[in-house]
Every structure is written in structure tokens, then in C-alpha cells.
Design brief:
Blueprint (H helix, E strand, L loop, with lengths): L3 H27 L5 H32 L9 H35 L6 H19 L1
Helix pairs in contact: 1-2, 2-3, 3-4
């Protein structure tokens, strides 16, 4: 039979997943943003937030399983490190994309009416992603 702690943990994980899914639905589907800033940001980070929704509860349940007294339910440390690294990576990519959208698509394009060439945008993004890769090594 399943222990009460494990059932409560699964219920909490389901609650986190439903809460994050509802938040995603409100921010990206229900609200029709009129501000060019929010339109730009939601267009750029939608995919990364969508990928984070199942990963956050999964990472949370793995760390909580580590705290349970039953040793048979403890995940291997390599899986914990991998999920934490993936969570950090997706969060960093979402932050980089949001910053890039803010700077190039809103600050220069909307506020200053300047068009930044696509090659310059790609070059800056490439440099930032290379720095992120080197940081994670």
C-alpha cells in the first residue's frame, strides 16, 4: 500500500502542476495584452515557460522524495543533479530570451524606432549563449 506521506506528496505535486498550468493559461492565453512590451515578452518566452511547467513539479517531487524516510524511494544523486541543471538551463534561456526581446524588440524597435539588424541580434545572442554554456561546464 502507498504511504500517507507519498500520497500527500503526489497530491502536492499535482497541485503545483495545476497551479502553474492555470498561471500559464492566464498570462499567455486569457489576457490579451495591449502593451507592446508585454506582447513582445509573452511571444518570446511562451515556449520556455511551457517547458518549465512540467519540469518544476518534477524537480520538486524528486527533491521531496529525497527527504522521505523510505530509502527505496530516494532517487539517485545523478538524476537530481541532471534535473536541477535542466531547470537552471531552461530558466536561464527564458531569462536570456526575455532580456533579448526587451532590448531588441521593444527598447530599440518600439521606443527608439531603430531597427537592429538581425545579424547583430544573432551575434549578441550567440555570445550570451556561449557564455552560458561555458558557465555551465
Amino acid at each position: 500500500m502507498w504511504s500517507q506521506e507519498l500520497l500527500f506528496l503526489l497530491l502536492q505535486t499535482l497541485g503545483i502542476f495545476i497551479g502553474l498550468s492555470f498561471f500559464y493559461w492566464v498570462v499567455f492565453k486569457a489576457i490579451h495584452w495591449r502593451s507592446p512590451l508585454f506582447q513582445t515578452l509573452t511571444a518570446q518566452i511562451r515556449l520556455w515557460c511551457y517547458l518549465l511547467i512540467p519540469l518544476i513539479p518534477f524537480a520538486w517531487v524528486l527533491t521531496q522524495l529525497e527527504l522521505l524516510p523510505t530509502r527505496a524511494l530516494h532517487p539517485p544523486p545523478s538524476i537530481l543533479r541532471s534535473v536541477d541543471s535542466l531547470l537552471l538551463l531552461l530558466g536561464a534561456i527564458a531569462l536570456i530570451e526575455a532580456t533579448s526581446a526587451f532590448v531588441f524588440d521593444y527598447l530599440f524597435a518600439v521606443r527608439r524606432n531603430l531597427t537592429v539588424p538581425q545579424i547583430v541580434q544573432s551575434l549578441v545572442r550567440s555570445i550570451v549563449y556561449i557564455l552560458l554554456f561555458l558557465f555551465l561546464l
